[in-house]
């Protein structure tokens, strides 16, 4: 078994594609429009679906906002340098909600950004070991 994708419902199809591709640097891998059932899909990621988990952006016709609920946490992305990633995201119009710094009780450098629908995305700085426990 392997993880294929995570699906997020989005309120503005093109705005979301723009955020994940232009701001976070993902590639638009494929799209599917299904007018009969009133939804549209975009799959974005950092590599081909055959080798990488991706994000499925689902737009349901006529729905421009969702309640995120209290069960959702975040998506995590590994980056070489969190502070530089925050600067690039901010310069591209993205929203940084927690600046780069060590995780509480640990040394791993993290930050948080938010997509246009309010989904949280954690940026984790790449380093040689992953032994910090994060809450």
Précis, in short:
The chain has 135 residues and is of the alpha/beta class. It contains 2 helices and 8 strands; from the N terminus they run E-H-E-E-E-E-H-E-E-E.
Characterize the structure shown.
The chain is of the alpha/beta class. The strands form two sheets. It has a four-stranded mixed sheet, covered by helices on one side. The chain has a four-stranded mixed sheet with strand order 5-8-7-6, covered by helices on one side. It has helices at 13-23, 82-91; strands spanning 5-9, 27-34, 39-45, 54-60, 75-79, 95-102, 109-114, 120-125.
What are the main properties of this structure?
135 residues; 4-stranded mixed β-sheet; 2 helices
The largest sheet, given as strand count, sense and whether it forms a barrel, is:
4 strands, mixed
Number of strands: 8
Q: What string, H for helix and E for strand, traces the elements in order?
A: EHEEEEHEEE
Protein structure class? alpha/beta
Q: What strand line-up does the widest sheet have? A: 1-4-3-2
Determine the mean pLDDT: 93
Shape: globular
- Low-confidence parts: none
Strand content: 35-45%
Helix content: 10-25%
Q: Helical stretch count?
A: 2
How far apart the termini lie comes to: 27 Å
Radius of gyration: 16 Å
């Amino acid at each position: 078994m392997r993880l294929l994708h995570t699906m997020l419902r989005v309120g503005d199809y093109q705005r979301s594609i723009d955020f994940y591709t232009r701001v976070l640097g993902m590639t638009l891998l494929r799209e599917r429009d299904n007018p009969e059932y009133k939804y549209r899909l975009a799959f974005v990621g950092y590599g081909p679906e055959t080798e990488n988990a991706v994000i499925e952006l689902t737009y349901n016709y006529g729905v421009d906002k969702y309640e995120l609920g209290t069960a959702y946490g975040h998506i995590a992305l590994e980056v070489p340098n969190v502070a530089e990633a925050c600067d690039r995201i901010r310069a591209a119009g993205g929203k940084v909600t927690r600046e780069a710094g060590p995780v509480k009780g640990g040394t791993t450098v993290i930050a948080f950004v938010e997509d246009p629908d309010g989904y949280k995305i954690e940026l984790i700085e790449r380093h040689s070991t992953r032994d910090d426990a994060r809450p």
